[in-house]
Structure formats: C-alpha cells, structure tokens
TrEMBL record:
The lineage of its organism: Eukaryota, Viridiplantae, Streptophyta, Embryophyta, Tracheophyta. InterPro entries: LRR_dom_sf. It comes from the Eukaryota. This is Uncharacterized protein. Gene3D superfamilies: Ribonuclease Inhibitor (3.80.10.10).
Amino acid sequence: MTQLRQQQEIQKQSFQSLELQEIIYSRTKGTSILGLTPKIKDNIVPSKLERLALGRCDQFDVSRGSLSSLTFLSRFRMDGCVNVSSLPSAGVFERLTVLHSLEILNCKNLESLSGIQALRSLRFLSICGCGKLTADSSLHQPTVIDVDQGDTTTGSSLNLDELEIDHHLLLLVEPLKSLCSAKRLVVTDASSLACLPENWLLRNRTALQDITMYDAVCLHSLPPSMASFCSLHTLKLFHAPLIESLPNLPTSLSTLCITDCHPLLKARCQEDLGLDWCKIANIPRVSILERFHADDS
C-alpha cells in the first residue's frame, strides 16, 4: 500500500480521544501533533479529536500552535511536560471554541498562563505542580481591597464553573487574578495559607457557590466579609486545627464542614450552648469535627 493510500485510510478513522505518553518531538515533522507518533503521519490532523492528553512530552512545545487545527477539542490535559514554559497564544486558544476542560499538571517550568483568557467556553481549569508560576516574589506582597469601594480590576472574560489549584498564590497570577465569576474554588494544598484569599473571593463573591480547602493547617480565621457571599452554599475546610471561632456566615450556606478543628471551635458550635451556635443553627448540613487523639479513647 502506498504512503498516500495509508494516509487516506488514517483520515477515515474517527477516533475522538488520544493520549500520548513520552513523545519525542521530531523537528522534521513540522508542528502537527499527529506528526509525533510513528503510526500517524504528517498533516493527518484528527480535526474531530475531542479529548487530548499529553504526558511527559519533554520535547513537545504547545506554544508552537500545534493545537490550532483541533477545533473540536473539548478536553485537554498536559501532565509532566517539563519543557513547556508558555501556553498557546490567545489567537490559538480562540480557535478552540468548544474546549471546556483544561488540566495543566506538573509542568514545572511553565512561567505564564497568558492565552487562557481567550478560552470562552472553558468551564473547568486545574493547575497543579507548576511551581514557577508562583515563584515571583511580588506575588507574596499582600494587597488589600476596600470592601466599601470595591475592586477596580478589569474582570476576566473567563466564566469558570470550577477552578482547582494547589497553591493560593496562583490566584494572583493573571488571568486568574482577574476572575470575577468563578463558581467553585478548590485548593488541594492550602498548607501555606494563613487566611483566605479575601481579595479574590470578594471579586467573585456574587458567583461563588463552593469553597473547598484541603490541608488548611495554617488557616487561623475566616474573614468577616463571609456574610456577603450571597451565592455560597458549600464551605469545606479539611484539617483546619487553628480556627477558633466563626464569623457571620451567608444565609445561602447549606453545607459547612470543618475537620480536625480546634477544641474551642467545637465548644463554640455546641448546639444551643456555644457562642457560635446562632451562626450555624440554620445551616442544614453542619459537620464540625475535632481531631481524634488515640489517647482520648
């Protein structure tokens, strides 16, 4: 069978999902994703590909525009692509009009999230293990939003249903910093977080429905502004031993969960007796769990 015939046969295939692991990029193949494997030749672009996962693709540079022809792509995951320092340009991302899920994992040399703001259909974004994004020392300098005057930052065009991150400082990196309509925030490692990222939360408070923090070992309090989060229905703080009291909470809240809590907080939330009971009495599902010690049994 001639090479042309082989290409025609591959073009007829209608696979929708592709997972590529440990790809070696060949410069002689151009920038086509499908030029990266021996089974799929040059210029045979799976234009109807819906799901793409790249794993440990050290030599693959997504910033070259290799994704621009995948206009049917709805889910894209990059994991362990350590040579990736930047993402596709806004012009490339603009072409991915149905991309709703993007996971960027363990891309340790990624320096910028520029371009993501062009993904108008994006609903789920996960960024974990990308340490260079938060290496800028300026991100560690606190800024304050005047609650009465509001925030003058121009809002991002992104409209996320869920943002999952492993470090709270990612909320200071554009375009995440300018988000104003995120519905769910999940921080998978909040171990370095002493207080909730109030500036970012205030910017998203009318949209936020769910805040979940894992390993909140340094979190010592919740901000007084929590009561203004009018759409919030779920607040979960796992392993939060330093919180001793609660502020007033929004009337919309239907689920409150704080695990490994301080003994004082447990006492303050005691039904009918605790000082904070009046703040949680009308919440349908409340779980305030003190840390279990083996010598208490």
